[in-house]
Amino acid sequence: MSAAVDHDTRVTGAEKIFSRVLVGVDGSPASLDAARQAALLKAPSGTLTYVSAWSLDPPLVSPMTVLPPVTDDERAARRSAEDALRNAKEQLPSARTKVVRGTAAQALLAEVECDRSTLVAVGSRGLGRVQGIVLGSTPSRLIHEAPCSILLARGGSTLPPRRIVVGVDGSDESAAAYAAARLVADRFHGELTVVIAEGDALLDLAAVSLIVGDDYHVLPSEPVRALTAASRDADLLVLGSRGLHGLKSLGSVSERAAHRSHCSTLIVRAA
User: Which domain holds residue 22?
Assistant: First the structure.
């Protein structure tokens, strides 16, 4: 499929992104931000599911150690997850809820596959990209492994989003990102700014014009720096993903820009 893909097809794909939304909640302010923003972005006829995971850290023991019962700890951990879901449901009482055992990243990735989610949302706590890779943060795991679009919600973003920034380089992936950004801007009567990075080695201006016309801003910088700068005055940054997963995605423009963004970031993975 070329960058000049049929407009109706792009719009339909953008609408589907918000049809089955999954949110990871853990009771933190960051996860409540994710719940609020996901509830807002969800399509009117779509579904919203809040998932809270609980697990117990394995104790450090020697071969001769007799392990004490952990029933009370398990109950407390599960109760904490259930409390987080109750708080999140205040954002949208009709949302479905699910408590699962396991780490947050493992649980969300499993539920994405099971529910065939089109968007997974989590809160961003400002963990740097390198730290996220080393520590295995949930946002980093999702960026690298989730097969669907991803919302990294940052606190302080205006709701509904009034200023939306989208990065376009002429690729099919950026066309999908533009369609999603255009849909959000039209839905909430927001202002859409298209950013083109002059330093992008993959930039195809002819294809960009086919996607967005002539209404775009060319910044004399490499993509990550240009997108990070543009996000300072935005409520939502929208990026396309080239479908890279696992180790191949490390260092990608969308992955680096998402971690450095000053606002919430939507990474679009087109079907």
Answer: 7-55+71-268
Q: Which residue has the higher pLDDT, 250 or 72?
A: 72
Reported as a single tens digit per residue, the pLDDT across 217-253 is 888 899 999 999 999 999 999 999 865 444 444 458 8
Residue 226 within any structural domain of the chain: yes
SS3 167: strand
Q: For residue 239, what are its two tokens? A: 């990026």
Between CA 159 and CA 112 the distance in angstroms is: 25
Name the band, by pLDDT with cuts 50, 70 and 90, for residue 31.
very high
Relative to beta strand 96-101, strand 149-153 is: unpaired
Give 225's Cβ-side CA count (13 Å radius).
8
Helix or strand or coil: residue 196? strand
Q: Which two tokens stand for residue 75?
A: 């109950």
* CATH classification at residue 44: 3.40.50.12370
Confirm whether 179 is domain-assigned.
yes
Burial class (CB in 10 A: 0-12, 13-18, 19+), 268: buried
DSSP string, 67-81: PPP-HHHHHHHHHHH
Helix (H) or strand (E) holding 177: helix 172-187
Strand partners, 56: none
CA–CA distance, 83 with 240 (Å, rounded to integer): 35
> Model pTM?
0.86
Residue 266: partners with Cβ closer than 8 Å, 6 or more residues away = 149, 150, 151, 177, 180, 181, 184, 236, 237, 238, 239
> Residue 192: what residue type?
L
